[in-house]
Amino acid sequence: MMLNTVGVVVFQVRVARRVTDLRTATRATRHAGWLMLAACAAYALSGAGVGAQTAVAVLVAAAAIQVFGEMVQGAGSWEIGFGLAHPDKQGQYQGFFGMGPQIARMLGPALLTTLLLGWGTPGRLALGGLFLAAGALFGPAVRRAERARRKARPRELLNRPRAHPMGSDLAGEPDV
Predict the structure, then answer these.
(1) Based on C-alpha coordinates, what's the Rg of the chain?
(2) C-alpha 112: how far from chain center
(3) Closest among 116, 130, 131 to 32, alpha carbons compared
(4) What secondary structure, in 3-state letters, does the chain show?
(5) Between the CA of residue 171 and those of 157, 163, 165, 175, what are the distances in Å?
(6) Contact 47, 55 (CB under 8 A)
(7) Which of 74, 82, 130, 171 has its CA 20 to 30 Å from the CA of residue 35?
(8) What is the pLDDT along the chain (176 residues), one digit of tens a residue?
(9) pTM (predicted TM-score)
(10) Residue 59: count of CB within 10 angstroms of its CB
């Protein structure tokens, strides 16, 4: 807990500074997937019959990798959450986007109990694989959303009320 708190306080802004647009955000989420896989592999290694001192060192390293992976993922998903949202519908988009963590909190305990306690080392590696897959899928999902947004943009412009010839923003309403 202490490593997590200190790591976030010291490094979160530096990590987030690297994410400036959707391209860097998808790269960050992909990178985070690899980091989380590495953390899960290190956690698995800690129980592989190594000595107590080695196990503690591996666990501290795994926790540091996990914290860094969470910060990178957080920065990337934050940018994606705001970058894809229509400017007039930020609240609706954030509400929908925010359902992801809520679903994870709902399903997470059962999944983690099964993988980590039921499956042991293979479960830790499977969890890392899930993180890797999730990080890798952000790129195609964002590209698809961007294409859909570009296709919708012309229709959106066509459906806007036209400016009144007298200079009003809305037809039938004169400038005052």
Answers:
(1) 22
(2) 19
(3) 131
(4) CHHHHHHHHHHHHHHHHCCCCHHHHHHHHHHHHHHHHHHHHHHHHHCCCCCHHHHHHHHHHHHHHHHHHHHHHHHHHHHHHHHCCCHHHHHHHHHHHCHHHHHHHHHHHHHHHHHHHHCCHHHHHHHHHHHHHHHHHHHHHHHHHHHHHHHHHHHHHHCCCCCCCCCCCCCCCCCC
(5) 15, 6, 8, 10
(6) yes
(7) 82
(8) 788 888 888 888 999 999 999 999 999 999 999 999 999 999 999 988 888 999 999 999 999 999 999 999 999 999 998 898 888 888 888 888 888 889 989 999 999 999 999 999 999 999 999 999 999 999 999 999 888 888 876 655 555 554 444 444 444 444 44
(9) 0.80
(10) 16
CA distance 75 to 116: 27
CB of 59 closer than 8 Å to CB of 8: no
Which two three-digit tokens encode residue 17?
Answer: 């500074």
Distance CA 56, CA 30 (A): 28
